[in-house]
Amino acid sequence: MTVEARFVQLSRTAPPSQLRLSPVLAETIARWSADRQSSAVVVRHQNPYVLLGPKDRRLPHLSDAVRWLNRRGYPVFMRIGGGSAVVLDEQCLSFAVSQPCRDFTIWEANFRRLAQGVIDGLMDLGIASGFGRAVGSYCEGPYDLVANGRKIAGIAQAIRGGFALVSGMLLIRQDPVATTALLQEFYQRAGSDLVLDPNAVTALTRLPGMSTLTIESVETALRDGFSQHFRLQQQPLTPEELALAEQLLSERRLTA
């Protein structure tokens, strides 16, 4: 039986006041999932920022590295799920699926079920992908999406506050070499000996036959992919949710 899900879309043409909330929009809607005992799907654009994971908080020179990113125009935020540093910008498209959940034993099932719409949407575009680990990629994880042996999307999960949130970003036109170099220097400045491999990551437009792919076509494909698993009901953000997102944005941002 197909489950009904709220659908929230933050388009490229969204008001700047809403677009700046992109780093915390998935968490905001996940709290709605817990409160309403309902599922939700989010597809969103964003302005550039860097998202860090829990382990990054322990880096010995984190403040210096955050200041360096800020000087380069990247605000820095902490994620509520697992993973490590990633760069999100206009050349990516972010997605998230949330549902009521307090059961940590279905962690793996959550990844596979809630992110399946992304795999199906990409298949509609002619891109075969699956879960896997791209060794040496930034934010390396076992449930990233891989195509042609390279990472095309990072996916993380958080179970807290009565919800499960599976979220990630598709690398559509982002330069994997430049992004990896930026994150490599961030880690060096932060005092980490982590070595990243730019060849472990690629963008969708660098896949065979995909050079003309647009972010808009991927956006449509994501909605179609999720529609195979949910009855999507578009619902805008409420004033209360916008206020909560503003609060979370302040709480999640790292200041050096």
Automatic annotation (TrEMBL):
Residues annotated as domain BPL/LPL catalytic: 34-234
Keywords, ordered alphabetically: Ligase
Gene3D superfamilies from the UniProt entry: Bira Bifunctional Protein, Domain 2
PROSITE patterns named among the record's database cross-references: BPL_LPL_CATALYTIC
Keyword set includes Transmembrane: no
GO MF annotation: an example: transferase activity
GO BP annotation list: protein lipoylation
SUPFAM superfamilies: Class II aaRS and biotin synthetases
InterPro entries hit by this protein: aa-tRNA-synth_II/BPL/LPL (IPR045864), BPL_LPL_catalytic (IPR004143), Octanoyltrans_LipM/LipL (IPR050664)
Protein name: Ligase
Organism field: Sulfobacillus acidophilus
Organism phylogeny: Bacteria, Bacillati, Bacillota, Clostridia, Eubacteriales
